[in-house]
Amino acid sequence: MKVLLPDIAALRLALGLPALQRKGVEIVVASDALEARRLLREHRPRLAILSVEGDGKNRTGAEICREARACEDLRQTAIFLCAEGAMTARQRREVQASGCDELIELPLRPRQLLDRAALYLGLVERQPRLPVETLVDIEGIDSPCTSVNLSTSGVLVRARQGLAIDQTVRLQFQLADQQLLVSGQARLVRVVPGETAEELLLAFKFLDLEPSAQRALANLSTFQYEEGGGWRRVTVRGAITEASPLDALAPLLVGRVEMDLSGLTYINSWGTRAWSRLLTQAQARLKELKLVRCAVSFVLAAGMTEEFIGPGRITSFYAPYTCPHCELDELVLLEVTPALEAARDAPPRDCPRCRVPMDFDDIPTAYFAFLGT
């Protein structure tokens, strides 16, 4: 198994090469873009990391990536594109359009890339690291139950026996990664059919969690859920990748749903496809889906893939601005109004620091493309 790398010291440190080499991974280093292009075809590595910038003389990493995606022999090669420094939203969009699997921006902490690379190399299973199959003991249910999703607000449980809605029970489960036993009262707020005729999904709301358990669950949860006023409100946090338990989110997408995406930090190509499938499959169960406070990464994906928001409607989103005078970067929350939909352009904004007009840090026609979906 081989990995192709550019000759960038910071990248080698972030990747944790000794740990990969101990697992039998062979490292191939390219001195420039021309050599990277040649070695990519010669070695057909499982993972190739290419410099976005190239070397100024030969093809850029994005151009090499486009070539590789058109080559049948390299279809199984995962490609990371690496930028030595922060990129603007516009630059990220241009690079991601090349078909890369991941976009990396240096600097990174030592070994920060190790888990991500190991995933693509098949050295870890493509499964969530969250304890989504944690055994849950529920008062009044004798058969085994397993958690589908854990959050600070409650737990979604797969079971073969139901309880009465609003019934309060004691439940208990172990967070294996943290050696923490969670025990407390919870109220059953919803019961929905599972994947089979014998299976039920039970949604419990916690009533008395200890602070230590709340902190632990906050670190684990992918999404939070609450219900009220005729709406189901889901908050999505972290990254959407192949390791995200989106299947656990599907049963919650029923009726009127408001989804807060401000905590979304990253979405890769696997995540984009999985998210599109999730919303397409939920369309028949939804009466209305509002997507609010959408992060930049979500807006970029929505503009590139028509199916990404499915039956949903973006009502507010963050937009990137930068000040040409003091270089302040700012994310501004914008409401989707008829005027904005008609203009499909960034509203003017003055810098809060120096009061000069700010620049919109992307191509407006591309960034606001989702308004036409």
What does this structure look like?
The strands form four sheets. A six-stranded antiparallel β-barrel has the order 6-7-8-11-10-9. A five-stranded parallel beta sheet has the order 2-1-3-4-5, with helices on both faces. It has 373 residues and is α/β, with parallel strands linked by helices. Helices cover 24% and strands 34% of the residues. The chain has three domains: 119 residues, Rossmann fold; 91 residues, Beta Barrel (Thrombin, subunit H), CATH 2.40.10.220; 152 residues, 2-Layer Sandwich (Transcription Regulator spoIIAA). The longest helix is centred in the last third of the chain and has 14 residues. It contains eleven helices and 19 strands. Strand 14, helix 8 and strand 15 form a beta-alpha-beta unit.
Share of β-strand residues: 25-35%
Mean pLDDT: 81
- The helix/strand order is EHHEHEHEHEHEEEEEEHEEEHEHEEEHEH
**Widest beta sheet: strand line-up:** 6-7-8-11-10-9
CATH topology of the largest domain: Transcription Regulator spoIIAA
Question: What's the overall geometry?
Answer: globular
Total E-strand runs: 19
Rg estimate, integer Å? 23 Å
The overall number of domains is 3
Give the biggest beta sheet: 6 strands, antiparallel, barrel
Give the class from helix and strand content and strand pairing.
Answer: alpha/beta
Oligomer state equals: single chain
Query: What is the count of DSSP helices, taking H or I runs of 4+ residues?
Result: 11
CATH class of the largest domain: Alpha Beta
